[in-house]
UniProtKB/TrEMBL annotation:
Example of a GO MF term: oxidoreductase activity, acting on the CH-OH group of donors, NAD or NADP as acceptor
Transmembrane feature ranges: 17-37
Key words of the record: Membrane, Oxidoreductase, Transmembrane, Transmembrane helix
UniProt-recorded name of the protein: Dehydrogenase/reductase SDR family member 11
Gene3D superfamilies: NAD(P)-binding Rossmann-like Domain
PANTHER family, per the entry: DEHYDROGENASE/REDUCTASE SDR FAMILY MEMBER 11 (PTHR43115), DEHYDROGENASE_REDUCTASE SDR FAMILY MEMBER 11 (PTHR43115:SF4)
Family, per entry: Belongs to the short-chain dehydrogenases/reductases (SDR) family.
Protein's organism: Ceratitis capitata
Length: 253
């Protein structure tokens, strides 16, 4: 990780769960981290969970990544405030619509899921990659995916439908390969990796559903995913880690 010391990392959805764990891990690994979230105050609170000597290296920026102009503003703020473009991007922000895909009046939930999971990732990756390319630097883009992007899990009648969530995750897997090809086409030193975890104990689900899931199924911790992110970006520059799949012991999917 020595080559990343003092470099700038951006993490989307950094206010809780996997995003918060990634922000903390990256700061403690020597990065200057910009955390994007709609709940900016929660990233500020996160600073108190970081060793004192690293706290000044975590910055919070309020951003709804579904808004293209806000994403551009976040990258401009990072360049103006820190004097550097983004070297590592962790696309983590994501949501799940928990109504049935075939239910009536669920358009807003479906649209929000697609816009957050797909368009938000596209907007952020585009800004990060072009910054890396223009500066001709080594860079790494990480997409937090899901095992639901490898196989649609059948949760059974006692758990909610995953709605359009797996479809967005399958799309992210395809995008990962498209980005890999494009980054090579432009002869850059930018790598792309997806991390596909099984069920993770986060607040992405409503509390009532989350409680049921925890009782019925084993789960990972957010820190387990953050460890995978650190490993991927810590591999030698000539290594292309395409996808990492991690599951909790005992997962049946």
């Amino acid at each position: 990780m020595e080559r990343w010391q003092g470099k700038v990392a951006m993490v989307t959805g950094a206010s809780s769960g996997i995003g918060a764990a990634c922000a903390k891990a990256l700061v403690c690994a020597g990065f200057v981290v910009v955390g994007l979230a709609r709940r900016q105050e929660r990233i500020t609170q996160l600073q108190q969970e970081i060793p004192t000597r690293f706290r000044s290296n975590l910055h919070a920026f309020k951003c709804d990544i579904t808004q293209e102009d806000k994403v551009r503003e976040a990258f401009k703020w990072t360049l103006d405030r820190l004097g550097s473009g983004v070297d590592v991007l962790v696309n983590n922000a994501g949501i799940i619509a928990t109504t049935e895909l075939s239910a009536n009046q669920n358009t807003d939930e479906i649209r929000s899921t697609i816009e957050t999971n797909l368009l938000g990732t596209i907007f952020c990756t585009r800004e990060a990659f072009n910054s890396m390319r223009e500066r001709n630097v080594e860079g790494h883009v990480v997409i937090i995916n899901s095992v639901a992007g490898l196989q649609v899990p059948n949760l059974g009648p006692d758990l909610p439908s995953l709605n359009v969530y797996p479809a967005t995750k399958f799309a992210l897997r395809a995008m990962n390969e498209i980005y890999r090809q494009e980054f090579q086409r432009h002869r850059t030193r930018v790598r792309i990796t997806t991390i596909s975890p099984g069920i993770v104990d986060t607040d992405i689900l409503p509390t009532s559903i989350r409680t049921v899931v925890k009782e019925m199924l084993p789960s990972l911790k957010s820190e387990d995913v953050a460890d995978a992110v650190l490993w991927a970006i810590g591999t030698p520059p000539n290594v292309q880690v395409h996808n990492i799949t991690i599951k909790p012991m005992g997962e049946k999917f």
